Amino acid sequence: MRIHIWYFSGTGNTWYISNHIARALALRESRVTLSSIESADPPQVEQMLDECDVIGIGYPVYGSDLPSPMKQFLRSLPVPPHPVDLFVFCTQWLFSGDGTQAALEFLPSRQYRVRWSEHLFMPNNVCVSALRLPYTNDPKRIARRGAQQIPRISRLADHIVSGSSSHRGFGILPALLGSLQRSPFRRFFSSLQNDFTIDQSVCTRCGLCSKICPVENLTFGHDKIVVPQGRCILCLRCYNFCPVQAVVYRGRGHISSRGIPYRGPDDFNPREEKKRWHKY
């Protein structure tokens, strides 16, 4: 079986899960390739759709919704001449209701058939001081949480290889639970896109935030001052990975007593997302 997985990951959780799913499928004698949608180009997408038996789609859920880059990626998929089997998985902290079923809204054709779906639980990456949500930056605790998802990943891989459909996050009740988060999130999303700014007195002009932003929201202006463009997707990559915590949320910087921000499992490197491509 030939499988390709496209994923989007802001701070590493979905990247981690995507790699483990790819490994689990490879152990079941599938040929698997894996890439970030930030590195995708239309010819490569069409080639994978033509050559692969199954396509995987992975993303973190924000307010029970898909991140904007994944919405755009799914909308841009070509309409295939034949049915394409998909598996969809999402990473979440607590719950999302219908986090995987929400992808159906953005698929351009019913030729894309979601035959498998799974929700995976990963540590909270929202560590902005203004919200004071609990989070950890302890690698052992992060790894332990990730390891707890292996049984779900194994079951998903078994279903995919055997061809037996399985769905999590689909149905009326999950949709109702998801809408309780998604409706207000979508209503207020545009008003949140300017909440992350730069403390110019702390910023060292290293340019990392501009390089790793998936939507080019942070760009250099006069005298190398980083200027937000109002396109933020709330992935937290800039806030969490700034080496001096110069990125602030609603005017409030990161409180150092809480420790460094969440920077994902293993050795996730956001610089690599625009060129990630792996074979298993």
CATH topology call of the largest domain: Rossmann fold
Coarse shape: globular
Strand content: 15-25%
What is the rounded distance between the termini? Answer: 12 Å
Largest sheet: 6 strands, mixed
Give the strand order, joined by hyphens, for the main sheet. Answer: 5-4-3-1-2-10
The CATH class designation of the largest domain is Alpha Beta
Number of domains: 2
Structural class: alpha/beta
Total strands: the figure is: 10
- Helices, by number, come to 8
* Fourth-tier CATH superfamily name of the largest domain: Flavodoxin domain
Low-pLDDT runs of 5+ residues are none
Describe this structure in words.
With 280 residues, the protein is α/β, with parallel strands linked by helices. It folds into 2 domains: 190 residues, 3-Layer(aba) Sandwich (Rossmann fold), CATH 3.40.50; 65 residues, Alpha-Beta Plaits, CATH 3.30.70.20. The chain has 8 helices and 10 strands. A 6-stranded mixed sheet has the order 5-4-3-1-2-10, with helices on both faces. Strand 1, helix 1 and strand 2 form a beta-alpha-beta unit. The model has no long low-confidence stretch (mean pLDDT 95).
